[in-house]
């Protein structure tokens, strides 16, 4: 069923596993991720950035596509459709009215007071509709769509408690060294800060920039209260590699199903691997 993230993340935190947010870029991602979730009997979060939504034709198109695929597949696992890095109250409201079951309001680049104000407004509207809300503190490095950061700023554990207590959000993304896109060298995640936050913040934590984080760090983040991990680049790289190989092998190929199909399978296998790594397989 289509559900908010609230229960699935709390269950993950209570039972020591994380639920993957896998970003949708087009139809093939929705197909691959939903197939992977059903085969793995794993809850799943379909992340949709504003840029990706624009590319696919808008929030309504995304919701209709996901609902139709879930119908056609007979999906039985819990699925959340989540606005990734929502840039304003209006965008979050638009996504909620289009049928998204979860939204992130990313006001992490604003001063704390402004972040609190806008997040409170989003929570008030979202919770009226049974929609979950994610917010962020600090700055995730790298670039993803229109989300560009100039460097990593670690979230302040004290500010994390204030934001959660003042707004009623369902989960928190404290930026602690993660980066959108490929890492340059080993990730250097702030586990000390994560442990401090776990002691005072009772909501599940979110790790952005999941691509390229070693399993040992994934497991450590889960042990410190992280139960949502976002992955996009790793799926994109796997798809592109598969499509490139097919087209290099058969340069005269022009039927999109013949070169996109292998890419979809590559995304699916990558997602299955992540669900097993995060421990969400068989947890639906
Ligand atoms: O919000 C999206 C995720 O943080 C994606 O990060 O592309 O580095 O896996 P990633
Ligand atoms: Zn992100």
List keywords for this structure.
single chain; 284 residues; three-stranded mixed sheet; 11 helices; 11 strands; binds glyceraldehyde-3-phosphate; binds zinc ion
Structural features, described:
This protein is an alpha/beta fold and 284 residues long. It is 50% helix and 18% strand. It has helices at residues 6-15, 27-40, 50-56, 59-73, 89-98, 112-128, 157-167, 191-200, 215-223, 233-249, 256-278; strands at residues 19-23, 44-49, 79-86, 102-105, 132-137, 141-144, 147-148, 171-174, 179-180, 205-207, 226-231. The strands form two sheets. An eight-stranded parallel sheet has the order 8-5-4-3-2-1-11-10. A three-stranded mixed sheet has the order 7-6-9, with no helix packed on it. The longest helix has 23 residues, at 256-278. The N and C termini lie close together (11 Å). The structure holds glyceraldehyde-3-phosphate and zinc ion. The site of zinc ion (ZN) has 6 residues, from loops.
């Amino acid at each position: 069923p289509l559900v908010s993230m609230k229960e699935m993340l709390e269950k993950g935190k209570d039972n020591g596993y994380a639920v993957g947010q896998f970003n949708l870029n087009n139809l093939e991602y929705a197909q691959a991720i939903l197939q992977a979730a059903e085969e793995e009997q794993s809850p799943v979060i379909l992340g949709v950035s504003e840029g990706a939504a624009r590319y696919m034709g808008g929030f309504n198109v995304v919701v209709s596509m996901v609902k139709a695929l879930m119908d056609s597949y007979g999906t039985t696992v819990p699925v959340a459709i989540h606005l990734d890095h929502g840039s304003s109250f209006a965008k979050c409201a638009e996504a909620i009215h289009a049928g998204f079951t979860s939204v992130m309001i990313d006001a992490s680049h604003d001063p704390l007071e402004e972040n609190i104000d806008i997040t409170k407004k989003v929570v008030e509207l979202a919770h009226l509709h049974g929609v979950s809300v994610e917010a962020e503190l600090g700055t995730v490095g790298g670039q993803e769509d229109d989300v560009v950061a100039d460097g990593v700023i670690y979230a302040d554990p004290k500010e994390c408690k204030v934001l959660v207590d003042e707004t009623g959000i369902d989960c928190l993304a404290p930026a602690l060294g993660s980066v959108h896109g490929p890492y340059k060298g080993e990730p250097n995640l702030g586990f000390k800060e994560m442990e401090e936050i776990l002691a005072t913040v009772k909501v599940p934590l979110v790790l952005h920039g999941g691509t390229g984080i070693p399993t040992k760090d994934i497991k450590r983040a889960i042990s410190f209260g992280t139960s949502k991990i976002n992955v996009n680049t790793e799926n994109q790289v796997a798809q592109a590699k598969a499509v490139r190989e097919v087209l290099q092998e058969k340069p005269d190929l022009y039927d999109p199903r013949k070169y996109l199909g292998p890419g979809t399978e590559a995304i699916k296998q990558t997602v299955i691997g992540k669900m097993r790594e995060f421990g969400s397989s068989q947890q639906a």
